[in-house]
Amino acid sequence: MEIAITKDLLDGPREINILRWMTRAALEMIGQSGLGYSFDPLVDEESENPFTKSVEQLFPTLLKFRFAQEFLLTTAVKIGTPRFRRAVLDLIPLKSLRKLLGIIDVLENTAKEILDGKKEALEKGDEAVKEQVGQGKDIISILCKWQDHSLVFGAMDTTSTALSRALSTLAKYPETQDKLREEIQEARKRYGEIPHDELMALPYLDAICREIMRL
User: Per residue in 3-38, pLDDT tens?
Assistant: First the structure.
């Protein structure tokens, strides 16, 4: 992500939509730690995963149907089979409905892709699981071992908002930013790639994170 943003600034100062980048970064962190799946390499704006856009557009699109929600949730869902209902919806030439169906398709197909990949790796054995993102330590791999096929997608908005607030706050206080950078650089000189426990033990970083959460 750092390289991608740096490229955007090669031609001089310009406005960067940092919330957009934080949203993508949050989804990637949740994907790797919770799902063992990489959504976005974060190398440029064009590489953004369709899943990210679909998650962002889902609720704004649903709001357009707020007046029909009661009918859809209480009556329409009882008509015929899911395949029949989808076939009927596909025939309705409503732009907002077409967009909503496209979003739902992306979310469903991505969920199936993740789950099928996990199940296939588990069937092949531990070595195949270790080759995946997360190396079998992600939440979904653990749940699959217990035959729980539920997928939970959440925390993206809260994580991206917290990251954006942290960057915004640090930008307002350069001296704090310099002190934090110095602490992290010292840790990198000592450890190289900073281990998780040592990262969590950095006192100034911990203090800043706590203050951001307080805000």
Answer: 777 777 777 777 877 777 787 888 787 777 777 777
Place of tokens 């310009």: 14
CB 167 within 8 A of CB 142: no
Task: Give the pTM.
Answer: 0.53
Residue partners of 58: CB distance under 8 A and separation at least 6: 103, 107
Task: Count the neighbouring beta carbons within 10 Å of the beta carbon of residue 138.
Answer: 23
Q: Which of 42, 43, 14 is nearest to 28 (CA)?
A: 42
pLDDT at 142: 54
- Pick the closest to residue 156 from 51, 86, 72, 69 (CA basis): 51
**Measured distance between the N- and C-terminal CA atoms of the chain, rounded to whole angstroms:** 25
| Separation CA 31–CA 138 (nearest Å) | 9
The CB density around residue 125, as the number of other CB atoms within 10 Å, is 9
